[in-house]
Amino acid sequence: MLRRTTVLSFVGLSSLALGLSACGSDSLSTSSSSSSAGQSSTTSSASATVDAALAAKVPAAIKSAGVIKIGTDATYKPNEYLDADGKTVIGMDVDLFNAVAAKFGLKTEWVPSSFDAIILGVNSGKYDMGISSFTVNKDREKEATMVSYFAAGTQWVTQKGNPSKVDPENACGLNIAVQKGTVQVDDINARSKKCTDGGGKAINVLIDSDQGKVTTMVVSGKADAMLVDLPPALAAVDDTQGQLETLGSQYDSAPYGYVLPKTGSDDFAAAIVEALKALKADGTYDQVLAKWKTQDGAINDFAVNPPVNS
User: Fold this and answer.
1) Which of 64, 110, 124, 194 has the largest CB neighbor count within 10 A?
2) Would you give the distance in Å from CA 270 to the centre of its chain?
3) Contact 180, 116 (CB under 8 A)
4) 0.85 cut: is pTM over it?
5) Please, what are the domains in the chain?
6) How much is the CA Rg of the chain, to the nearest whole Å?
7) How many CB atoms sit inside 10 A of residue 165's CB?
8) By the 8 A CB rule, do 97 and 131 touch?
């Protein structure tokens, strides 16, 4: 499952959400062409090494099109976000799966979508896949086939110095921001219920579908803190040049999964696992993660529908 001045003016605050999802970065051995803002971008590898055995496992419809159409929430830097042109989707997830697609001799088309609509879009045929930092859990494995490729936990983030004195274990009555459709929504709602069950004030949960806007709530003081996956938490701290800080350590680390249709995708999912293993073996996997400073989330046990605790 979603990073310019030290002091933000009113105008700077209003544009922070765009800035958090529109910073440029060189891509890793890729070239791309894009349509208008908010629409899809198509990317192909400039140094593709096709594995014929893996390419043979590509579903016929995708093989015929030559392109894997991918639904993604492009607000989650550094994993998936819009480049400075406001059109091209870039990030760790993009670079890594473009390398996977190259093993199949395919291009990728990254289509921006709201996070909570992606799995439905995959199962309806709107997208061939969903790639958007999806934490693998039992509920999602009931809805889709998932291929693990990374791991991350939840991180609390506050304004620098934690002026609201946020205690993650007792945030009752505080304003806490989270992105719509994420595991963090369930997390903060459970914490709020614990507050009210104990006679305390409920947590005021602030939800937005755009992670950049969630971050802006904390910078502006509208929210006392936010919950978000570790990679975008670190990126938000970096992008706001010290206006934010992490609080405590990440917790509940779990695998991220590529989302494929619930039925009829087992062979393709297994082939993606083999492609990831090949990229791990030749160093590409670690190179991509190092580029985006996400190497702490590297895994070795790529799997289709990996066992999870919740």
Assistant:
1) 110
2) 22
3) yes
4) no
5) 10-152+255-297 (3.40.190.10), 153-252 (3.40.190.10)
6) 19
7) 9
8) yes
